[in-house]
Design goal:
The protein is of the alpha/beta class. The protein contains 14 helices and 21 strands. A 6-stranded parallel sheet has the order 2-1-3-4-5-6, with helices on both faces. The chain is globular and about 65 Å long. The termini are far apart. Bound molecules: S-adenosyl-L-homocysteine, iron/sulfur cluster and FE3-S4 cluster (F3S).
Length: 435
């Protein structure tokens, strides 16, 4: 039996896609291996969202090529967003045998077979229909507690900095029946949490089922599981979604709501379809319906023509909202995007760097403040396994997606336990078992 090894980069959707690829290749007779030295097929499922993501993968391609050269018969391939963006130029390097975009995974068995005969293969056609809805993913996470369920693919927004619509194609939603089947299957296999994934989950629509309806269908189909979802777009997250969250105890109290910038001038240039005031209105609405809901965000420092004043608007927005956590990035120009074509990437590297550091410093303090507010509170936590630092402690997340650790020799991964917060760091709630 041939063995396949896959490295996954980028977002949660890529993790879910890797699980689909393992399923397709499993059906075609490949076994999975976690040891690259044992693999007959070596694949990277890649990300193009920022230049540094691509640079890391370029390094790995060299490494893969080393295996390919030293062990005859080994086939290497690039999957995912970088495959879609760079197309033939990846094959032209002569370092990989297969290039397959995100909608080409059903063809992988054929592509790999032809490549093993010495014929390089490329398939980067994007589809308007493909959702892999009928494919049962082979879960790659090891603890068997939390699973990703992809509910849609692609993106119809045109945020001017973003490469995703080019690498993932047009938005399409998956049949809710197949989503419910997958959620029930996760429950039957002992999973305790599912995360519904899409680039813009609030624009999910399949016939008359919108995202609010889908959320309630899933929450009610698997009442013993926790439900998460990502990513929400500020302009699209509806009151109906918030009300559905508020009325289902098993939908987690956490919304990842990327803001990107606190400056209206930047938001317009980014082609985000909300203003600072509109964003703050959504935050207020979330908090009025769910006072205990965590809000996290993504932000970009140093987008085209960003001034110190624009940057201060971002800092003040962070203070105003008091995010519980954030992913923070420097702007990275992506070839082919609207911003790359229309706007010079003119914020000097030092300024981008400093602005990012300033945002990080503010967020570090906000994260610590957010965690301090939790001291003395009791949370229901889903155990993920032993804590990385101390094997006598367990770790797991609360509904707000905060990492908790506590001494425990009784419980196991997959248990729900009640803990009381005694202390915290900026990243972790330090707890003890309640009762
Ligand atoms: N669909 C999600 C985001 C997907 S990409 C949304 O709309 O919010 C994840 C994050 O990467 C984005 O939120 C953004 O903050 C960041 N990002 C995307 N393109 C980028 C670029 N060209 N440079 C820097 N960061 C970028
Ligand atoms: Fe990119 Fe915008 Fe789509 Fe998110 S919503 S994936 S940032 S284009
Ligand atoms: Fe990266 Fe593609 Fe996800 S560009 S962030 S892997 S959709």
């Amino acid at each position: 039996m041939k063995k396949v090894y896959i490295e996954t980069y980028g977002c949660q959707m890529n993790v879910a896609d890797t699980e689909v690829v393992f399923s397709i290749l499993g059906e075609a007779g490949y076994a999975r291996t976690e040891d690259i030295a044992q693999a007959d097929v070596i694949l990277a499922n890649t990300c193009s969202v920022r230049d540094n993501a691509e640079q890391r993968i370029r390094g790995r391609i060299e490494q893969f090529n080393f295996h390919r050269k030293s062990r005859p018969g080994v086939v290497t391939g690039i999957l995912g967003c970088m495959a879609e963006r760079l197309k033939d130029s990846l094959l032209e390097s002569g370092k990989v045998d297969v290039v397959a975009g995100p909608d080409a995974y059903r063809h992988l068995p054929g592509l790999l077979a032809a490549a093993s005969q010495g014929h390089p293969q490329i398939d980067v056609l994007l589809s308007r229909e493909e959702t892999y809805g009928d494919i049962a993913p082979v879960r790659v996470d090891k603890n068997g507690v939390s699973a990703f369920i992809s509910i849609m693919r692609g993106c119809n927004n045109v945020c001017s900095y973003c490469v995703v619509p080019y690498t993932r194609g047009a938005e399409r939603s998956r049949d809710p029946r197949s989503i419910l089947r997958e959620a029930c299957d996760c429950a039957a296999r002992g999973y305790k949490e599912v995360t519904l994934l899409g680039q813009n989950v609030d624009s999910y629509r399949y016939e008359d089922v919108d995202f609010a309806r889908l959320l309630s269908l899933v929450a009610e189909a698997v009442p013993g599981l926790r439900i998460r979802f990502s990513t929400s777009n500020p302009q699209d997250i509806s009151d109906a979604v918030l009300e559905t969250m508020a009325s289902h105890a098993n939908i987690c109290r956490h919304i990842h709501l990327p803001v990107q910038s606190g400056s209206d001038r930047m938001l317009e240039k980014m082609r985000r379809r909300y203003t600072r005031a509109g964003y703050l209105e959504r935050v207020a609405k979330i908090r009025s319906l769910m006072s205990d809901c965590a809000i996290t965000t993504d932000v970009i420092a140093g987008f085209c023509s960003e001034t110190e004043e624009d940057h201060r608007d971002t800092l003040s927005l962070f203070e105003q909202v008091g995010f519980d956590a954030a992913f923070m990035f420097q702007y990275s120009e992506r070839p082919g995007t609207l911003a790359a074509r229309k706007y010079p990437d003119d914020v000097p590297a030092e300024a981008k760097n400093r602005r990012l550091e300033e945002i990080i410093a503010v967020q570090n303090r906000l994260s610590l403040e957010s965690n301090r507010r939790d001291i003395g509170r009791t949370f229901r936590v889903l155990v993920e396994g032993p804590s990385k630092r101390n094997p006598a402690e367990l770790c797991g997340r609360n509904s707000q997606n905060k990492m908790c650790v506590w001494p425990d020799s009784v419980h196991r991964a997959g248990d729900f336990v009640e803990v009381i917060v005694l202390d915290c760091t900026q990243a972790t709630l330090l707890c003890r078992l309640a009762g």
